Automatic annotation (TrEMBL), chain A:
Lineage: Bacteria, Pseudomonadati, Pseudomonadota, Gammaproteobacteria, Lysobacterales
Organism field: Dyella nitratireducens
Name under which the protein is recorded: STAS domain-containing protein
PANTHER family: BLR2341 PROTEIN
PROSITE patterns per UniProt: STAS (PS50801)
InterPro entries: MlaB-like_STAS (IPR058548), MlaB_ABC_Transporter (IPR052746), STAS_dom (IPR002645), STAS_dom_sf (IPR036513)
STAS domain sequence ranges: 1-100
Transmembrane segments: none
Automatic annotation (TrEMBL), chain B:
Keywords of the record: ATP-binding, Chemotaxis, Kinase, Nucleotide-binding, Phosphoprotein, Transferase, Two-component regulatory system
Keyword Lipid biosynthesis belongs to the record: no
Gene: cheA
SUPFAM superfamilies recorded: ATPase domain of HSP90 chaperone/DNA topoisomerase II/histidine kinase (SSF55874), CheW-like (SSF50341), Histidine-containing phosphotransfer domain, HPT domain (SSF47226), Homodimeric domain of signal transducing histidine kinase (SSF47384)
Gene3D superfamilies cross-referenced by the UniProt entry: Histidine kinase CheA-like, homodimeric domain (1.10.287.560), Histidine kinase-like ATPase, C-terminal domain (3.30.565.10), HPT domain (1.20.120.160), SH3 Domains (2.30.30.40)
Modified residues (Phosphohistidine): 48
Domain annotation Histidine kinase: ranges: 268-519
Protein name: Chemotaxis protein CheA
Location of the HPt domain: 2-105
Membrane-spanning parts: none
EC top class named in words: transferase
Organism the protein comes from: Dyella nitratireducens
Record bears the keyword Ubl conjugation: no
Pfam families: CheW, H-kinase_dim, HATPase_c, Hpt
Amino acid sequence: MGGKSKSEARVSMPADCRIAEVGVLYTQLRGALESSQIVLDGTTVDRVDTAALQLLVVFQREAKQRERQLQWAGVSAPLYDAASQLGLTEALALPAKKPA
Amino acid sequence: MSNISIAQFHKVFFEESLEGLDAMEAALLALDEGGDAELVHSIFRAAHSIKGGSATFGFPDMAALTHEAESLLDQVRDGRRAIDKSIIELMLRTVDCLRGMFDRAQNGQPLADADSENLKQQLAVAAGNNVPAAANKAAAKPAASSGWIIQFRPHAGMLAGGNDPLRLLRELAALGQLVVEAQLDRVPTLDALDPSECHLGWRIELTGAVSQDAIKTVFEWVEDECDLTIEPLVAVAPPPAPAVEAVATPAAGAGAAAGTTRAAASSNDAGSVRVAIDKIDGLIDLVGELVITQAMLDQFREEFDPSRLAMLQHGLAQLARHTRSLQESVMGIRMLPIGSVFNRFPRLVRDLSQKLGKQVKLDLVGEHTELDKTVLEKIGDPLVHLVRNAIDHGLEMPEKRRAAGKNEVGTLRLEAFHRGGSIVVEISDDGAGLNRDAIIAKALQKGLIKSGDDLSDEAVGELIFQPGFSTAAVTTDLSGRGVGMDVVRRNVVDLGGNVAIKSRAGQGTTFTITLPLTLAIIDGLRAAVGGECYIVPLVSIVESVQLRADAVRSVTGGGELFRFRGEYRPIVRLHQQFGCANARQNIEDGLVIVVEADGTQIGLFVDELVGQQQAVVKSLEANYRRVDGISGATILADGSVALIVDVAGLIRLQSRRKAA
């Protein structure tokens, strides 16, 4: 991945965000850590599983530790539902209200 | 990285569940007619496995609905309440509702709708009505508690094994109110993370009158893949009434899921077949034989010696025999009993006859007759149309039947059997038969015929297959559905089959559907036209004749007719139709194959017949594009391609040309 010059990175999560796809997301997220500001876009997530949510939790921690600014650009209803079912909304710093 | 996802099991789950629903429906109908207690058990089992499956595969709405149905059934099973019409009606509606949900699940739509929510409430109310009291129920099951604390720590490999904690938690949520606390203490750093391994754990508080067994069932599949402790919740809250609780919590989950829009996963829906073990074993045996034969021939190749020619011939004969058996066995895999289609009719007949106030006895014969899966899937709708029509228009009201000196109960008979190389499905009723006068009047009005005086009964019957000829307005005063018989015929013809009708006033009507055994292989005659080869399906062939020039007449407008068995029939010269060069032009030099479809005969003029052969049908549309008059292609022994003549299509083309 490129140098530290990139100021903002945007990671769009795929519609199918499950264990078979988390490898790609993992690489993307690691790349995004090079930037100081990171925007996660979960608007189009349709299916999500524990593996993907766990990855996001780990990523959140890592970002915090490295003092990156992390923001959610949007959270789809399936993503929100899954996170709240697993008790991870706080750890993921999801916006408090479910989007319409 | 493992690619295992639970979605790959959805299809099997859908199929099994739909079969379960069929069984449930059949048992309910049998119960309606006074069946025994064993039926209740089989209904319960079906509901239970759908509930379990839907929760496992992430369909909480479905699980919630079946949960309610199961509670009600449980009371019946335990003898706590007697089965009555209202319960059967409710359960039949549940079956319908679940079918709808499966439909939506396959299309990736939200499962719950107003109907299902409504039904769930009704089931809960029905189940609650006769429950002695909430406390009693809890007391009756010692293992039940007002709540549980579940400590759930998946092993690292659980995710890769296809088990998703999310699904398990959703399943728990269907049992009662959850408070979930994720434990992140073992989560590694991003660099150290293998995303397919699970490092999370959960402490879950489950409140509700749930038995420990119910919780264990949720974790049944993963008990070797996680650390699990289940302890009763100490602080006992007053237990809510089970009916209310059961409605309230899953509904919350349902609402959440209803907001989700799932992507359609059914775009590449190739379908699947479940095959009996003995069919597979037969195949394996045959392949074994084939290998032996091949080894024998191989040996001959290595030690070539003209004196052993007899052995070679023997080996080749064996090879041919095994190949043919293998082919038959493989085709057999696609063959399924028609009973799966017939099974939907008891319900249809019951509902329809109740609605119309008619009394109908349904006879199903030959349910074990096997049909190609593709044919089977597509024959359902035409059959439903015909059965519906038979009850709606064919069978009379009880008074009318009595007045006509017939049994008040009308009989509707569905029969499937083999005839020649085809499957025949007959739908017959002992109703009033076609109303000849009304049909002729309608046909005259529509301008389909000029006069109805000298029409045979067959010809009158044929009229109802004409496009736009609605039987509803003619044969009964009931508001019919206006089902066009032309659509029924077209559907059947598309399957390579045919529909015929026989009707006798006052005695009833019989529809006869003839279907090919399979669509994948046809028996055909190979005909040479110019330098090319065409396959004419054997089922369509009446006979082939060599004509003298004086038997052929030219008609104005360019067509040709030939005299065959006292009647004139049109000739289609295949070389003209398909533009073949170097074909024989003189009618006396070639042959005319008389073919028939949809009750019409025409003659196909070809150079000569080469021989009979089985043709494995390849789709022309998929590999090239649609060609009028051609239904597909096949590969010949020498590797060249031969086109398969679409006889019905040619006849349609011919009549269009005549009309033009």
